Amino acid sequence: MKSVEAYPWLKKTANELMMIPVLPNSFIIEGSKGLGKSELAFDLIQKQLCQKNMGCNYCQSCQLLRENTHPEFLLVNLEEKKSFISIKQIREVIDFMNLTVTNNSSRMALILNADRLNIESQNALLKTLEENSTKKFIFLVCNVRNALLPTIYSRCFIKRIATPDTESINHWLNNQGIFDVSANDFPNFYSPKMIKTLVEEGKSTLYNNVLSKLDNLVCGIEGTVTTQQFFKDLDISFPEKIDLMVQYLLLKIGVQTGFFKPHTKFISLTKTDTNDIDVASFIDELVEYKSTLLKIPGLNEQIAMSYFLNKMDRVI
Questions:
Q1: What's residue 2's pLDDT?
Q2: Residue 139: in which H helix or E strand, if any?
Q3: Band of the pLDDT at 264, cuts 50, 70, 90?
Q4: How far is the C-alpha of 24 from the C-alpha of 130, rounded, in Å?
Q5: Could you give the angle at which helices 301-315 and 206-218 cross, rounded to 10 degrees?
Q6: Is the pLDDT reported for residue 199 higher than 70?
Q7: Number of neighbouring beta carbons within 10 Å of residue 228
């Protein structure tokens, strides 16, 4: 895992957190996927476990932690092909935190993708979060804001990480050897690491391809069947497809209200005769459906996409 030093937008936050005299026992770090939140949590954990209390990278404790073999550290993540972190995994966390801490050490649990904890798992974790001793710590890293129960938030110290501005992202991309794309070529909720990954995978045109396809649909150049097949072939998750549809609709409202300049490349985003209330209502429907989808992952994608694409054609 890279150090937080690799992500300049985190340095100020990291320095502030590193200066906290007493680390909170229950800690939530929230923000978009790909901002380095996991690295930030790991650096805080390393400092706490380090024999020199500084995250030196050289002591035995730091070496064991880097190899994920430290006896006082437990890492929990979403298992492959699973939609949620299981109650079994959370019970392992609870059992681990109930063990006696060795002398002059701390016990640390790090839960990545904590927004994928279902209600049962969150409720099971509540008592442990509340009763953590001074030497026991739980970090939850969330890629979605406000995804957890209010009772979880009330028991935790919360640090929210904002997505850096366009200039900062572009500067970072340039430092990574990426010069042929800009943050403006992607939705504003895409993090620097997400953009870098898409570029490395040859998917840097994905967002513009989606805008073009929706533009063709709304302008009557292509039908819903062709558009649906396009979305079916996209190598991204169903929730991500919904996010991109929402982004298109937000651009539409932004152009109509004068918040954004018209996209001359996309005919549908130059027109200003759409009913903003209808578009806003459609956005709410998509966002609500995505929220349901994250709780009930078995919903049929093809039926939903057919419905949403037909409605988009009518609304815009």
A1: 59
A2: strand 136-142
A3: confident
A4: 11
A5: 60
A6: yes
A7: 18
Element containing residue 140 per DSSP (H, E): strand 136-142
Q: Where are the alpha helices (DSSP H) in the chain?
A: 11-18, 37-49, 60-66, 87-98, 119-131, 150-153, 166-175, 192-200, 206-218, 224-233, 238-256, 276-295, 301-315
End-to-end CA distance of the chain: 45
The closest alpha carbon to 112, from 92, 139, 136, belongs to 139
Question: What domains, with CATH codes, occur in the chain?
Answer: 4-160 (3.40.50.300), 205-315 (1.20.272)
Instruction: Work out the number of other CB atoms within 10 angstroms of the CB of residue 81.
Output: 5
**Alpha carbon distance 60, 70 (integer Å):** 9
Instruction: Round to whole Å and give the CA distance between 305 and 307.
Output: 5
Sign of CA dihedral 163, 168, 170, 173: negative
| Mean pLDDT of the residues in the chain | 90
Q: What pTM was computed for the model?
A: 0.82
More confident residue, 245 or 18: 245
Average pLDDT on 223-246 reads 93
| pLDDT for 297 | 65
204 contacts 302 by C-beta, under 8 angstroms: no
